[in-house]
C-alpha cells in the first residue's frame, strides 16, 4: 500500500463520483456506463488529477465537460448489483426516484423548470417480545434535486418547533416531549451550500442549489415516535414435530396513507422441512414463501392501508424433535416497507420559496415525504 | 447522437477478439479523415475516436494508430481533443518515440486562446510520463503557472508535481517549488491554492532528506502565518481541499491556548458538514490541539460524539464501519464518555457482520456498573439468535464484560444459562469463557463446576471448547465426581482426537487429576502417558516424556511442577501495547484506525514519508496512561489449591515475590536467568500453546539453562568484554543519519528493562546523552518528556567508518526501553547491541 489515506474520504469520494455520474446519465447502470464511457472518462479526468480530488460538484463540472450523455431508458434496466453500494441515492429515493439527467435536454428541446425536495426517513425500531419499544431511531435526509436554470436562491422553511441537541438529558430519556408538536433532533449536518444565517431564528435554510442531487440536511432523532406498524407474533408447538406460527401486522397510521412493498421475514427452526400457509380470507396482493435454503418464512404484501390489520398463519413440520424453547430457535421477525407521504418525525417543510426571476417564472416544486424501514425488528 | 460503441452489440463476454482486423480498419479510416475538411468530418472523427477508446478500454492494443490519432487531432472540436488527449496519455509512456509526435501539437495547444484547451493540453503534456521529454515541459508549465485563467493555473500546479515525479532535478532547477509557494500565498482561486499546497507538501517532504532548505520550507508550511492564512480562507475551499488543509492544521503546534481556541472556534461549524471526511479531519484537529489540555480534551469528546454518531448511522455500511472504527478508538480511550450512548451500538438485524462485530466490541468497551445489566441482556438476545457467527461473538462479548467487571454474579448466571440452551456452538463458546472466568475468579468455581459437570463431553467437539472442558476436569478434579472417569474415556479415544492442543491438555489434566486422586486415575494416567509417548506430534510426545521422567524422579517434584499453588489472573493483557495505540491515535482519520495498526506496519517502505525527527518526536504521545497498564490485582491466599499461574496467551500475572509492579507482557519482563529457569518449566506445562509473544522469553530462558548466557540488561553479572571498539570522536551529520536510517534495515529490535537507578537518573534527556557519550555513543536527536523519552544515537567503529544507528524509546513508568538498531555492518550488530545495552545498564550507577 502506498499511502495511509482517510477511509472516510475514499468512501465519500466513491459515492460522490457515483452521484455525479448519475446526475449526468440519469441512472447509473451497466448499460448507461457502456453507452457513455467516454463521458465518464472525461468526468473522472476532471474529478481527480494525479490522485488529488479537484471537484465533485456537477455544477462546476458542467463547465469542463463537453460530451453529451446518451440517456438510457431507466424502466428496462437491470439493477446495478454490487456497485449499487455506492448509490446511496437509490436507497434513499424509493420507487419514485427521478431518473432524468441534469445536463441532457428534454426531447422537446427545453428543460422543464422543476425542483424536487424529498424528506426521507429511515426508521429503526426494535420491539421486545412483549411489544415494548427497546430502541428506536430515525435517520432522516432532506434531499434536493434541482432542474432550475440560472440557480436561483431558495428558502426552505422547516417546522418551527425544531430543537437540536438533547442538552444534558440522556438520549434515551423518553416522555415529556411526545404529545407536544416539538421535533427534537439529536444532531444534524448540512450541505456546504446551505446558509444557516436565519436558521436559529426561524428555522429557515437558504441556499443556492447546485445542479444535481444532494442532501441539504441529514438528521438523527432518537426522540420517541409512534411506529407505523405493530407486529404480533405467536409461535407454539403443536405436537412433537409440528408448530404453528401466527403473524399479525397492524398499520397504525391514518387511512389516507398507504404503505407499499411490505415484506415480513422470520427465521424458522432449522429442522423445519415444510410450511403450509393460510392467508386471511379475501387477501389480495399477498404472497408467501418458505425459503428452504436459509429456513426463512417470507410474507410479502403489495400494500397496506392505514388502520388495517393483516394476519398470516403458518403450520410448520419438523424433521426432528425440538428440544428447548421454540422461541429460541426462531425469529426475530423483521419487516421492510415504504410509506409515502408519511414521516414519523413530523418534521415538515413549511414552504419552499424560489427567488423570482420574472412574473411568469413559476417552476414546479415537488415536496415529498417518504418513510422506509431500515431495521424494523420484533423479537419473539 | 452517436451510436453506441461497436462492442455493445456483442455479448459482453471477456473473450474479446484480438481486434487486429478492426484496428487496421480504423487506421485506414482515420487516415482518410485526417486531411479532410468536408463538413461533418468532426462527427465522423468522434465516432472513430470513440471506437478507438472503446478498444483501449477493453484491453485491445490500439497503439498502432498513434500517428493517425495525432494527425486527426488538428481540430478545434474540444470533445475530439479530449478523446485524443486521453488516448495519448494512455499510450505515451510505453511508446516514448511516438510521444515525441504529440509534443508539437500539445505545445501549440498550450498557447491556444481557449483556456480550457490550454489547461487540457498542459495536463496531457504533464501526463506523458516520458523522462526524456521533460525539457519540453518546463516552458509551458512556467507560463501555465502565470496564466490568467484559474483552470490553467490549477492544472499547472498539479503539473509541477507530476514533473517532480518524472524528474525531480528538472523541477527543482526550474525553481518551480518557489513559484508554487508564492502562488499558494497569493492566488485568488482556492483550488489553485489547494493544489499548490498538495504539491508542495509532497515535494518538500521528499526533498527534505536531500536539502536543509527543503526541510525548512516544509516546516514553514506549518508556521503560524501559513496555517492562519489557509484557515481564514477555509470556506472558500471545496470540501476535498478543506480536508487537505485540515490535515495540515492537525500537525500545527499551537503557540498558546488562545491559538488553540481561535482555531477551534473557527472550525466549529465544520463539525456540521455533511461530508464525513471533513468532519473526521476537523475532529482530528480538535483532538490533537487539545491533547495537553485535559479538561478541554474531555469537552472535545463530548462535542464530537453527536456528529460521529450521526455519520455512523447515516451512511452506507462501509462508511459506518469507517466511522465506527474511529468511535472504537475513542471509546477505548474514554469509555465513560460513551457509556450513556450504549444503545447506539446495539446491532441492527440488516447490518453486515463486520459492522455488528465492531459494535459488539464497543458494547464491551462501554460497559460499566450503570449499563452492564442492559447491555448483557441485549447481548443474550444475540446469543440466542439464528445468526451463528454473531451469536458466538455475543457470547465472547458477555465473557469479556464479565472479565472486566468485579460484580459478575449476574453475568455468571447468564453464562451458565447459555450452557442450558443446548446449542453446540453456544456451549463451546461458553466453556472457553467459563475457563477464563475461573482463572480470574476462582471463587466462582463451585457454581460453575456444578453446571459444567453436567455437560456430556460427547457434545463438545470444538478443540478450544474441548480443551477448556478438559482443563477444568484436571483443575477441579477434586470437586467433579466423575473427573477421572471422563478423562479415562477421553483417553481411550486418544487416536480419534485430531487436535494436538486437546491431547496436550489431556496429558496435563490427567496428571493433575492423578496427583489429587491417585487410585482412581492411575490407569488413565498410564494409558495417557503411553499414548503420549507414542504420539507423532512432537510437543505431545515431549510433554508425555517430561511427565514420565518427572514422576520417575520424584512425585512431589512433579506435583510442584504440574500443580503448584497458583494466583488468580488479575488482568488479561491487552493485545496492543499502549505505545501502538497512541501511534494509531496520532494517525486519526486514516486506515491505521481501521486496520488497528500504525501505518508503518502496512505501507510500503518506499512510499513512506521520509524519516523526520521533528515529526517522529512530535508524535510521541505524552503521558497518556492507558488503563490497561494499571493492574489492580487481587491477592488470593497462597494456600488456595486452585490458584492459577498465568501461563496462557495474552495474560499477565504477578510473578512470585514481585512487589506489585505490573508487567506489560510476560515476554518482556526481563527476568534474570535465575527466575527464568523455573518459569520455563512452568511454561512447558502450560495449558495453552506457548504464545508467540512469549517465545523470546522462553527461548531466552532455555538458552540460559543451556548455559549460553545471553546478556540481559538487568543481569548483575558484568557483560563479556566487548570485542567491538567504538570511536569516541565519531561524527555524523544529521542528513547522512536520516539517509542511512531510511536505507538500512533494522538488524535488532528489542525491548529491555532499565534499572531503577537508571530511571531515577533520567530526569532530563541530557543526563542520558552525557552518560552515553562517555561510552562513545553519541546522540543525534532527542525529545519527549516524562514518562516517554526518545533518543537517536549513533556510534562508529574505532578503526573504520562503519556506523551504528539506534532508536531508543524509554518509558520511565514501565522501566522499559525499546531499541531499534541499524548497522552498516550487520554482522557486528549483535556485538554492538550488547555494548549498547551494557552502556545503558551502567546509567545511574555511581
TrEMBL record, chain A:
Gene3D superfamilies: 3.30.450.60, Mu homology domain, subdomain B. InterPro entries: Adaptor_comp_med_subunit, AP2_Mu_C_sf, Clathrin_mu, Longin-like_dom_sf, MHD. It comes from the Eukaryota. Keywords: Membrane, Protein transport, Transport. Residues 112-379 form the MHD domain. It is found in: Endomembrane system. Its main location: membrane. Belongs to the adaptor complexes medium subunit family. This is AP-4 complex subunit mu isoform X2. It comes from Coffea arabica. The gene is LOC113714901.
Automatic annotation (TrEMBL), chain B:
It is found in: Endomembrane system. This is Beta-adaptin-like protein. SUPFAM superfamilies: ARM repeat (SSF48371). Keywords: Membrane, Protein transport, Transport. GO terms for cellular component: clathrin adaptor complex; endomembrane system. The lineage of its organism: Eukaryota, Viridiplantae, Streptophyta, Embryophyta, Tracheophyta. Belongs to the adaptor complexes large subunit family. Subunit of clathrin-associated adaptor protein complex that plays a role in protein sorting in the late-Golgi/trans-Golgi network (TGN) and/or endosomes. The AP complexes mediate both the recruitment of clathrin to membranes and the recognition of sorting signals within the cytosolic tails of transmembrane cargo molecules. Residues 724-841 form the Beta-adaptin appendage C-terminal subdomain domain. Gene3D superfamilies: Leucine-rich Repeat Variant, TATA-Binding Protein. One of its GO terms (molecular function) is clathrin binding. One of its GO terms (biological process) is intracellular protein transport. Residues 8-18 have a biased composition (Polar residues). It comes from Coffea arabica (Arabian coffee). Residues 1-24, 642-674 are annotated as: Disordered. Adaptor protein complexes are heterotetramers composed of two large adaptins (beta-type subunit and alpha-type or delta-type or epsilon-type or gamma-type subunit), a medium adaptin (mu-type subunit) and a small adaptin (sigma-type subunit).
Amino acid at each position: 500500500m502506498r499511502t495511509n489515506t482517510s477511509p472516510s474520504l475514499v468512501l465519500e469520494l466513491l459515492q460522490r463520483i457515483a452521484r455525479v455520474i448519475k446526475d449526468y446519465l440519469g441512472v447509473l447502470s451497466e448499460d448507461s456506463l457502456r453507452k457513455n464511457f467516454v463521458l465518464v472518462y472525461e468526468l473522472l479526468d476532471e474529478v481527480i488529477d494525479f490522485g488529488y480530488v479537484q471537484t465533485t460538484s456537477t455544477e462546476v463540472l458542467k463547465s469542463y465537460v463537453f460530451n453529451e450523455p446518451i440517456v438510457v431508458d431507466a424502466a428496462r434496466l437491470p439493477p446495478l448489483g454490487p456497485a449499487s453500494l455506492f448509490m446511496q441515492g437509490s436507497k434513499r429515493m424509493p420507487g419514485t426516484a427521478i431518473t432524468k439527467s441534469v445536463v441532457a435536454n428534454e426531447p422537446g428541446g427545453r428543460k422543464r423548470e422543476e425542483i424536487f425536495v424529498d424528506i426521507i426517513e429511515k426508521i429503526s425500531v426494535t420491539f421486545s417480545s412483549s411489544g415494548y419499544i427497546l430502541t428506536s431511531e430515525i435517520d432522516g435526509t432532506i434531499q434536493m434535486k434541482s432542474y432550475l436554470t440560472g440557480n436561483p436562491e431558495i428558502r426552505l422553511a422547516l417546522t418551527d418547533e425544531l430543537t437540536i441537541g438533547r442538552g444534558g438529558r440522556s438520549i434515551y430519556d423518553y416522555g415529556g416531549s411526545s404529545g407536544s408538536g416539538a421535533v427534537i433532533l439529536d444532531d444534524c449536518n448540512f450541505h456546504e451550500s446551505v446558509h444557516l444565517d436565519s436558521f436559529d431564528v426561524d428555522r429557515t435554510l437558504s441556499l443556492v442549489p447546485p445542479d444535481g442531487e444532494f442532501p441539504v440536511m441529514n438528521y438523527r432523532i432518537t426522540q420517541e415516535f409512534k411506529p407505523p406498524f405493530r407486529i404480533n407474533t405467536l409461535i407454539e408447538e403443536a405436537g412433537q414435530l409440528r408448530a404453528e406460527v401466527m403473524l399479525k401486522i397492524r398499520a397504525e397510521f391514518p387511512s389516507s396513507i398507504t404503505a407499499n412493498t411490505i415484506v415480513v421475514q422470520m427465521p424458522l427452526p432449522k429442522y423445519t422441512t415444510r410450511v403450509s400457509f393460510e392467508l386471511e380470507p379475501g387477501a389480495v396482493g399477498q404472497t408467501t414463501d418458505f425459503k428452504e435454503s436459509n429456513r426463512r418464512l417470507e410474507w410479502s404484501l403489495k400494500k397496506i392501508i392505514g388502520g388495517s390489520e393483516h394476519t398470516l398463519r403458518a403450520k410448520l413440520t419438523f424433521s426432528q424433535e425440538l428440544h428447548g424453547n421454540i422461541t429460541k430457535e426462531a425469529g426475530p421477525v423483521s419487516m421492510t416497507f415504504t410509506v409515502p407521504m408519511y414521516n414519523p418525525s413530523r418534521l415538515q417543510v413549511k414552504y419552499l420559496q424560489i427567488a423570482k426571476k420574472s412574473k411568469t417564472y413559476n417552476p414546479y416544486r415537488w415536496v415529498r415525504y417518504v418513510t422506509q424501514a431500515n431495521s424494523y425488528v420484533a423479537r419473539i | 447522437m452517436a451510436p453506441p460503441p461497436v462492442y455493445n452489440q456483442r455479448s459482453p463476454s471477456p473473450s474479446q477478439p484480438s481486434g487486429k482486423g478492426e484496428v487496421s480498419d480504423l487506421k485506414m479510416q482515420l487516415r482518410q479523415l485526417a486531411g479532410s475538411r468536408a463538413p461533418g468530418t468532426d462527427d465522423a472523427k468522434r465516432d472513430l475516436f470513440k471506437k478507438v477508446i472503446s478498444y483501449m478500454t477493453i484491453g485491445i492494443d490500439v497503439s498502432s494508430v498513434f500517428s493517425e490519432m495525432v494527425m486527426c487531432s488538428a481540430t478545434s472540436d474540444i470533445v475530439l481533443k479530449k478523446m485524443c488527449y486521453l488516448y495519448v496519455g494512455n499510450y505515451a509512456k510505453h511508446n516514448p518515440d511516438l510521444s515525441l509526435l504529440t509534443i508539437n501539437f500539445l505545445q501549440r495547444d498550450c498557447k491556444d486562446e481557449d483556456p480550457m484547451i490550454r489547461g487540457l493540453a498542459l495536463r496531457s503534456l504533464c501526463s506523458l510520463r516520458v523522462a526524456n521529454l521533460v525539457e519540453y515541459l518546463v516552458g509551458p508549465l512556467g507560463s501555465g503557472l502565470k496564466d490568467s485563467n484559474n483552470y490553467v493555473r490549477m492544472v499547472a500546479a498539479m503539473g509541477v508535481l507530476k514533473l517532480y515525479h518524472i524528474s525531480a532535478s528538472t523541477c527543482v532547477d526550474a525553481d518551480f517549488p518557489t513559484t508554487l509557494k508564492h502562488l499558494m500565498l497569493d492566488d485568488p482561486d482556492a483550488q489553485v491554492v489547494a493544489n499548490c499546497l498538495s504539491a508542495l507538501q509532497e515535494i518538500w517532504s521528499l526533498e527534505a532528506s536531500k536539502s536543509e532548505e527543503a526541510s525548512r520550507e516544509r516546516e514553514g508550511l506549518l508556521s503560524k502565518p501559513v496555517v492562519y492564512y489557509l484557515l481564514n480562507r477555509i470556506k472558500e475551499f471545496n470540501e476535498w481541499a478543506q480536508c487537505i488543509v485540515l490535515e495540515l492544521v492537525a500537525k500545527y503546534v499551537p503557540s498558546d491556548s488562545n491559538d488553540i481556541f481561535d482555531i477551534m472556534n473557527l472550525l466549529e461549524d465544520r463539525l456540521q458538514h455533511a461530508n464525513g471526511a471533513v468532519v473526521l479531519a476537523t475532529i482530528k484537529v480538535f483532538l490533537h490541539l487539545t491533547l495537553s489540555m485535559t479538561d478541554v480534551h474531555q469537552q472535545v469528546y463530548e462535542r464530537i460524539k453527536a456528529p460521529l454518531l450521526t455519520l455512523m448511522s447515516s451512511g452506507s455500511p462501509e462508511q459506518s464501519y469507517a466511522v465506527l472504527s474511529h468511535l472504537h478508538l475513542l471509546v477505548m480511550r474514554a469509555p465513560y464518555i460513551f457509556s450513556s450512548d450504549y444503545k447506539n451500538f446495539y446491532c441492527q438485524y440488516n447490518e453486515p457482520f463486520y459492522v455488528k462485530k465492531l459494535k459488539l466490541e464497543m458494547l464491551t468497551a462501554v460497559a460499566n456498573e450503570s449499563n452492564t445489566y442492559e447491555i448483557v441482556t441485549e447481548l443474550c438476545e444475540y446469543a440466542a439468535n439464528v445468526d451463528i457467527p454473531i451469536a458466538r461473538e455475543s457470547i465472547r462479548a458477555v465473557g469479556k464484560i464479565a472479565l472486566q467487571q468485579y460484580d459478575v454474579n449476574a453475568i455468571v448466571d447468564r453464562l451458565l444459562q447459555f450452557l442450558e440452551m443446548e446449542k453446540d456452538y453456544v456451549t463451546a463458546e461458553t466453556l472457553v469463557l467459563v475457563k477464563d472466568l475461573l482463572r480470574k475468579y476462582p471463587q466462582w468455581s463451585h457454581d460453575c463446576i456444578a453446571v459444567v459437570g453436567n455437560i456430556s463431553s460427547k457434545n463438545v467437539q470444538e478443540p478450544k471448547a474441548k480443551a477448556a472442558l478438559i482443563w477444568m476436569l484436571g483443575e477441579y478434579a477434586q470437586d467433579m465426581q466423575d473427573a477421572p472417569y471422563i478423562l479415562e474415556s477421553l483417553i481411550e479415544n486418544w487416536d480419534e482426537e485430531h487436535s494436538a492442543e486437546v491431547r496436550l491438555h489431556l496429558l496435563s489434566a490427567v496428571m493433575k487429576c492423578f496427583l489429587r486422586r491417585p487410585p482412581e486415575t492411575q490407569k488413565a494416567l498410564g494409558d495417557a502417558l503411553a499414548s503420549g509417548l507414542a504420539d507423532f506430534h512432537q510437543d505431545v510426545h515431549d510433554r508425555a516424556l517430561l511427565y514420565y521422567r518427572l514422576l520417575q524422579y520424584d512425585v512431589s517434584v512433579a506435583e510442584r511442577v504440574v500443580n503448584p499453588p497458583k494466583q488468580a489472573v488479575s488482568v488479561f493483557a491487552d493485545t496492543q501495547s499502549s505505545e501502538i495505540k497512541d501511534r494509531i491515535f496520532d494517525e486519526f482519520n486514516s486506515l491505521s484506525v481501521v486496520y488497528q495498526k500504525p501505518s508503518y506496519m502496512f505501507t510500503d517502505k518506499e512510499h513512506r514519508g521520509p524519516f523526520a525527527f521533528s515529526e517522529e518526536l512530535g508524535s510521541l504521545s505524552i503521558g497518556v496512561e492507558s488503563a490497561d497498564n494499571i493492574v489492580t490485582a487481587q491477592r488470593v491466599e497462597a494456600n488456595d489449591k486452585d490458584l492459577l499461574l498465568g501461563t496462557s496467551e495474552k495474560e499477565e500475572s504477578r510473578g512470585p515475590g514481585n512487589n506489585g509492579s505490573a508487567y506489560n507482557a510476560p515476554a518482556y519482563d526481563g527476568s534474570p536467568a535465575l527466575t527464568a529457569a523455573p518459569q520455563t518449566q512452568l511454561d512447558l506445562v502450560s495449558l495453552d500453546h506457548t504464545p508467540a509473544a512469549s517465545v523470546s522469553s522462553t527461548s531466552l530462558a532455555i538458552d540460559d539453562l543451556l548455559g549460553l548466557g545471553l546478556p540481559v540488561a538487568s543481569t548483575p553479572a558484568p557483560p563479556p568484554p566487548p570485542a567491538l571498539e567504538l570511536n569516541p570522536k565519531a561524527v555524523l551529520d544529521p542528513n547522512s543519519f536520516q539517509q542511512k536510517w531510511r536505507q538500512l534495515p533494522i538488524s535488532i529490535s528489542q525491548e529491555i528493562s532499565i534499572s531503577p537507578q537508571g530511571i531515577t537518573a533520567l530526569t532530563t534527556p541530557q543526563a542520558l546523552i552525557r552518560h552515553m557519550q562517555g561510552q562513545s555513543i553519541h546522540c543525534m536527536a532527542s525529545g519527549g518528556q516524562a514518562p516517554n523519552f526518545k533518543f537517536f544515537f549513533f556510534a562508529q567503529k574505532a578503526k573504520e567508518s562503519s556506523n551504528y544507528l539506534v532508536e531508543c524509546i524509554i518509558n520511565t513508568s514501565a522501566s522499559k526501553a525499546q531499541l531499534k538498531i541499524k548497522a552498516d555492518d550487520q554482522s557486528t550488530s549483535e556485538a554492538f547491541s550488547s555494548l549498547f545495552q551494557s552502556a545503558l545498564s551502567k546509567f545511574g550507577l555511581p
